[in-house]
């Protein structure tokens, strides 16, 4: 079995998701008051990160936790509706080039995966009209159909992506050499190196340098 693995931010979706989520919360007619709680919680950590006193991965994971924690004990239905609203808008701006690649891989019989650090309900909302065999993202912790207050977020990022991919495919015989992976960031490197056909999509400078050195396909 051959697989085709797609990143989301900067790859299938050409922009970064988190700034859009911040704006969506800030301007939301119902949940806008939660933005202040999130903002006050995240600012000290963000400042420390900008001063190179806090690592990027931990800052992003803390941001994801702070964002969803601002919803307190909001119901699962309300949270999924919140993500559905922005997901519907984002779905109109998916990369046509990546959608074409996805459709071609499906026609060729590849097992297709979307692997991202974005929240799972957002990924499902954005791809409502796009079919993947598997979607892996950051799960939101619920208990009794409500957000589990202050519960940790298992942020899917960097090496954790590879761990989740290999665990999901553990019982399948994968032809890694003839598989594909698409990513835009240096943090996607572990996933790109899993396959025989890594593709750098609008790569950031660190990934671009590696892609050029290793003669990977580059899509700009």
Key words describing this protein structure:
220 residues, 15% strand, alpha/beta, two-stranded antiparallel sheet
Describe it for me?
Strand 6 (about 180-185), helix 8 and strand 7 form a beta-alpha-beta unit. The longest helix is centred in the N-terminal third of the chain and has 17 residues, at about 35-50. A 6-stranded parallel beta sheet has the order 3-2-1-6-7-8. A two-stranded antiparallel ribbon has the order 4-5. Helix 2 (about 35-50) packs antiparallel against helix 3 (about 55-70). The chain contains 9 helices and 8 strands. It is of the alpha/beta class and about 220 residues long.
Which helices and strands appear, and what pairs or packs with what?
Layout: E1 3-6, H1 17-27, H2 34-50, H3 56-69, H4 76-90, H5 96-107, E2 111-119, H6 120-126, E3 134-138, E4 142-143, E5 146-147, H7 159-168, E6 180-183, H8 189-192, E7 197-201, H9 205-214, E8 217-219
Helix pairs in contact: 2-3, 4-6
Give the percentage of residues in beta strands. Answer: 15-25%
| Structural class category | alpha/beta
Spatial shape: globular
Main sheet characteristics: 6 strands, parallel
Strand order of the largest sheet: 3-2-1-6-7-8
Global Rg? 18 Å
- Unreliably modeled segments: none
Q: Count of helices?
A: 9
Distance between the ends: 28 Å
Count the strands? 8
Average pLDDT, all residues: 95
Order of helices and strands: EHHHHHEHEEEHEHEHE
Helical proportion, percent range: 40-55%
């Amino acid at each position: 079995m051959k697989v085709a693995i797609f990143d989301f931010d900067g790859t299938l979706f050409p922009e970064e998701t988190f700034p859009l989520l911040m704006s969506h919360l800030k301007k939301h007619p119902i949940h806008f008051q939660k933005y202040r709680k999130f903002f006050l919680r995240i600012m000290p950590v963000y400042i420390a990160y900008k001063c190179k006193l806090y690592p990027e991965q931990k800052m992003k994971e803390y941001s994801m936790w702070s964002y969803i924690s601002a919803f307190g004990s909001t119901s699962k239905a309300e949270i999924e509706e919140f993500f559905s609203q922005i997901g519907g808008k984002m779905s109109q701006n998916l990369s046509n080039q990546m959608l074409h690649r996805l459709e071609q891989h499906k026609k060729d019989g590849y097992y297709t995966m979307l692997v991202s650090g974005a929240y799972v309900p957002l990924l499902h909302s954005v791809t409502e009209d796009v079919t993947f065999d598997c979607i892996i993202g950051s799960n939101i912790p619920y208990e009794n159909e409500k957000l589990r207050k202050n519960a940790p977020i298992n942020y899917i990022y960097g090496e954790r992506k590879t761990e989740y991919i290999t665990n999901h495919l553990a019982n399948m015989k994968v032809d890694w050499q003839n598989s594909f992976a698409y990513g835009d960031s240096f943090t996607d490197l572990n996933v790109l190196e899993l396959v025989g056909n890594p593709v750098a999509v609008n790569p950031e400078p660190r990934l671009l340098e590696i892609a050029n050195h290793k003669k990977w396909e580059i899509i700009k």
